[in-house]
Amino acid sequence: MSGYPIITPSSPPKERTDLFSCKKTAATQTSTPPPQAQGISPPRTPPLTASVDKEDIVDDDQKKDSKQQHPKTKARLVGMGEFEPEQHFYPRVLNAQIHPLVQSFFTLGNERIIARYTHLNPRVKAETLREILSYKPKYFQWAGSDLFNVTTASGKRQMIVIETNSCPSGQKSMPILSETDEHNENGGYRTVIESAFKEQLSKADPKLGELAVIYDKNEMESSGYAAVLADVAQEDVWLVEWYDNDSEPNVKWQEVWHPIRACFRYVTQKPWNRMPLNSKTIVMNQIISCLAGGRNKMMASRAYDFYNHSELVDTGLSVRSPETINNVTRGEIPLYINAMGNHAVLKVPYSNAGQGVYTITNNDELKHFLAEDHHYDKFIVQSLVGNASWSSVTRAGKFYHVGTIPNKKNCDTFVSDLRMMVTGNEQGFRPICIYGRKARRPLTAKLDPHDNTWEMLGTNLSIKLPNGSWTTDSSRLILMDRRDFNQLGIGVDDLIDAYIQTVLAVIAIDKMSERLMANGHFDYQLFRSLNPDDALLREIQQANPDDFFDSQ
Question: Basic and acidic residues bias located where (predicted)?
């Protein structure tokens, strides 16, 4: 691994908001911001080799996107004892009391979960489920799945996985589980650091450098992880912003500012275009987990299928997800939508935080999608989960939303989802936190032919602002507290089902990661055969030119 780069955040001058690169000096070694540096900010990607034409790496769309103005980025040190709950939880979470049912779920432990699940699902053998929950992920230690609580016309309820996210949000929305635990004010932040990252940190050479948390959104949670990591590691931690298309980044590879031995990553937007697949720095989660499904819905679907058909056959278990058609070109989209009864969901496979998802139930919504200028070449078409009278027709029949308990005002039911965050280490998996979200408008029994169905089906809370930064619509957040939880109409068995579905999805993606990183190198040919999208491949090549050359 000696030839691989080191991730190195800069230390900005206190008196400046714009950031310049600076070499490692005596001042920076003592964690004191250096004097104003002279020179030019380093490139966002590793230096290009002579055999690669720069025009092949950055296409016209990316050049246009690079003009987007992001907020000024910053890098700062976070020290021990800096965790303040008010800075890392929503105000309403600080005063919330965990719902007893949710608390009881978190105290079950895997053995009791196995006993309960196999009791209700006799086809599933206890030893099989124990092996699954004891699985040790190699690449994907920290994840969160978004799930819908659905039912069929015959009334069979179940949780289905909508997507699985690497580096998920959730801590700021989770009430404290215990009032008596010594570190209760840290909530799930400490659990993630101690149960997943600390194990990865032990693999890093302490002489290699410092620690960092790198992020491109959700500073509330990213800074919380940095503060807890400082306490757990007993040393200062760099907290560094790094946006896609950042012209003056605080992070670079190879040249030394502040060498970093281990990095907790909260970079979620196209992380593969600026972070290499291999590095001396320990990175959690590794970038391959995003490409293999953690931030790539196309590959996630592939991963679920491979896992279901190769290892879960006849076990009574499977990753349950909407019917998905991969690698669909723009011209093919109307044909597949028609095959699903003219109700479907179109997704840009590599977007997240609710971006690039389109619900299609009428010609207006389809025309709107086709009129947009899409950067990528391929899309996925998924069956739509709607109301009983207007869901997609699939080979497995129709699924439709259970939704929230009808409200008092108009007896309205809203579409809701559940985020289940988990970590995995040498001891296997454990649940970390849960929250729910609901759509803006109530679910209707009959659709208007010109309706905007995203308003009643979309649950994501993230909102991307024109300057590239993010905000959150927390009014639709459903906490796991005494006030909100009952809206969901779910019980302990539903939470157990959601947990097991999340673990299965994470294992599927981790196994796909292993396939793609056979012998420690990215299998470009395999990836391209599964995900033949040239725009995506160009992005990966930006930060990983050597992996591409080695595979050709």
Answer: 52-68
Query: Cα–Cα distance between 350 and 120 in angstroms, integer?
Result: 36
Kindly state the tokens that stand for 549: 């050359």
Q: How far is CA 221 from CA 67, 74, 188, 195, in A?
A: 28, 16, 10, 17
Mean pLDDT of all residues in the chain? 84
Query: Do 327 and 353 fall into the same domain?
Result: yes
pLDDT digits (tens, 9 = 90+) for 309-339: 999 999 999 999 999 999 999 999 999 999 9
Structural domain includes residue 179: no
pTM score of the predicted model: 0.86
Determine the Cα–Cα distance for residues 382 and 343; give it in Å rounded to an integer: 9
Per this entry, what is the length of the chain?
552
Range of the domain at 354: 87-174+296-511
- Tell me the per-residue pLDDT of 177-216, one tens digit each, with 9 for 90 and over: 987 666 688 999 999 999 999 999 999 988 889 999 999 9
Same domain as 305, residue 278 = no
- β-strand partners of 360: 344
CA 542/CA 272 separation, integer angstroms: 8
Task: Tell whether 274 and 320 lie within a shared domain.
Answer: no
Whether residue 321 lies inside any domain: the answer is yes
